[in-house]
Amino acid sequence: MADRRGSSEWLRRQDRSTQPARVAADPVLEVAGLTTRFDTLDGMVHAVNQVSFTVNKGEFLGVVGESGSGKSVTMMSILRLIPMPPGEIVAGEAIYDDRDLLKIEIDELRHIRGAKIGFIFQDPMTSLNPVLTVGFQIEESLKIHQQLPTEDRQARALELLELVGIPSPEQRLKSYPHELSGGMRQRVMIAVALACSPQILIADEPTTALDVTIQAQIIELVKDLREKFGTAVIWITHDLGVVAGLADRVVVMYGGQIVEEALVGELYASPQHPYTSGLLGSLPRLDQRGTELVTIKGQPPSLYQFPDSCSFAPRCPYAFERCHAERPPLLPISPTRKAACWWDVETGSPRDGV
After folding, report:
1. Is the pTM higher than 0.90?
2. Minimal CA–CA distance to 122: which of 253, 238, 230?
């Protein structure tokens, strides 16, 4: 792996005012031991394996990892949005407002989806109904969750389109999704998710299909809305550059598990898991010209086998005997960070006391 000392030094030189503010620990969502699998024709897919994390009020949590690492399935499992069958949530709990979202009645859960926890899906063209107007789809959530009269729903829908920066909002209320650009459809999705002023907003790679200019606009929009309403945001992405400027805390996933969790400044300054180190080393950097990008050798793990050992061990330059024999839990390293690794990258030796 690349030497991260240059990265650490660069991060320390940054103006502290540009770093996200640290959020006080006040959990609004607590997930513990979440395990999800899919029964397919090719075998059982162990998509999410004993994932645990918390989200605090008003916090911006970044969830990063490569495709297939379990980011989206984790968040969809919390709201029981995965198709069942073939999907099945076999263990764990997700505590919101003293209720376990994985065990409450589905009718009760429907009153939480949209009203208390909003979800921005990755592809708005497949998430928005093509035969219903934009206005109808925004108003539907207000009708179901807040029982607002027609005039109030229309006024709120107009206000939301203005809030997310859509031009000529009165006209767009009558438009169908196919009549809007990709960026405008994504803004409509954000408006739908924010309609009932949710306490938590989950954004599943909301800028992946958009060009760079529109991506920047959407990111700034979500950032402004979070600051304005104090909404906790879970931002799922594979783009570490986006996370650096937005998140308070970062969770790194690999092979259906969380391998590292830390405050954003700590993660970028001194990653504690070799996979995180490889991800950061693969980023092109303007302040490190002439430095070769890191490539992580090997292939991602097969999810058809339950991980009895460290999933990253076959690709890890620090792997030793224990890594191939025993799966490391998410170990606390400090009050603000954890890593699922038997090797201490700081000392260059196995971790003490584990």
Report:
1. no
2. 238
